[in-house]
Write a structure and sequence with these properties.
By secondary structure, the protein is an alpha+beta fold. Helix content is 55%, strand content 18%. This is DUF4349 domain-containing protein.
Length: 260
């Protein structure tokens, strides 16, 4: 188990600052689906909830896994990390804190100013003496109200991030072979999948080799044609050359010892 950062406290409460806290953990478990249920239970006990969840079953060489986005009160983020560490074997964890005090103060001031502006415009509308003044006040009020609604939405989102910490939990299974399947059936499926992969790879290699094989065949045919042409030319030259006449045997004259 590793702890990549020191524990954090609710800085927004203790010092008046607005702090957004985020973190993530990678946990090795035997069953990601059951472990995901435990993570949900941890979040609910701390007054939080699971914002999103993805569970993937083992497929081929990919082991089963689960990913959850958990939101918990910022004041309980340390308790959340401690409780989540008991779900399995924590292989890594990271935590961060972002100070958004200036942005928070600015948004609150702009919201307050627009609320005052809306109030004054409503008073002007109630005391408008002419239709033109009323229409002008209504137009200005509509614009101010739209701006106010947008700033209120931003302020609400920011305060939500300050009040609740976001923690990403990655649940994985430990493989018997590093980077490989975690059990027999996963290994069997991986082997079957590898057959298809090998077949596809062989087709790719064949596709690459076919042009070279065709080129090599054409070159071989040209060479064979040249060799045969030379053999034919040589044969024709040999046939065209005259053959030497056979020499007749010489007659011998009888000697004195031989009978006539």
């Amino acid at each position: 188990m590793s702890d990549a950062s020191p524990k954090m406290t609710d800085a927004a409460t203790e010092s008046g600052q607005s702090i957004i806290q985020n973190g993530d953990l990678t946990i090795v478990v035997s069953d990601p689906t059951k472990a995901a249920d435990k993570v949900t239970t941890v979040a609910e006990k701390l007054g939080g909830y699971v914002e999103s969840q993805t569970v993937s079953k083992a497929t081929g060489s990919e082991p089963a896994s689960a990913t959850l986005s958990v939101r918990v009160p910022s004041a309980k983020v340390d308790e959340a990390f401690d409780a989540l560490a008991e779900v399995g074997d924590v292989t890594s964890q990271n935590r961060s804190a972002t100070d958004v005090t200036a942005e928070h103060v600015d948004l609150k001031a702009r919201v307050a100013a627009l609320e005052d502006s809306v109030t004054r415009l409503k008073e002007l509308m109630s005391g408008a003496a002419t239709t033109g003044e009323l229409i002008e006040a209504e137009t200005a009020l509509s614009q101010r109200q739209q701006e106010l609604d947008g700033l209120k939405a931003q302020l609400k989102a920011l305060e939500g991030q300050v009040d609740e910490a976001s923690i990403w939990v990655n649940l994985t299974t430990e493989s018997v072979i590093p980077g490989g399947p975690s059990n027999f059936w996963d290994g069997l499926l991986a082997g079957i999948a590898s057959l298809g992969t090998a077949g596809a790879g062989a087709l790719v290699v064949l596709g690459i080799l076919i042009p070279w094989l065709v080129l090599g065949g054409v070159i071989a045919l040209i060479v064979i044609a040249i060799v045969r042409s030379r053999h034919r030319a040589k044969a024709r030259r040999s046939a065209a050359q005259p053959t030497a006449p056979l020499q007749e045997p010489l007659e011998t004259t009888p000697t004195a010892n031989e009978a006539p």
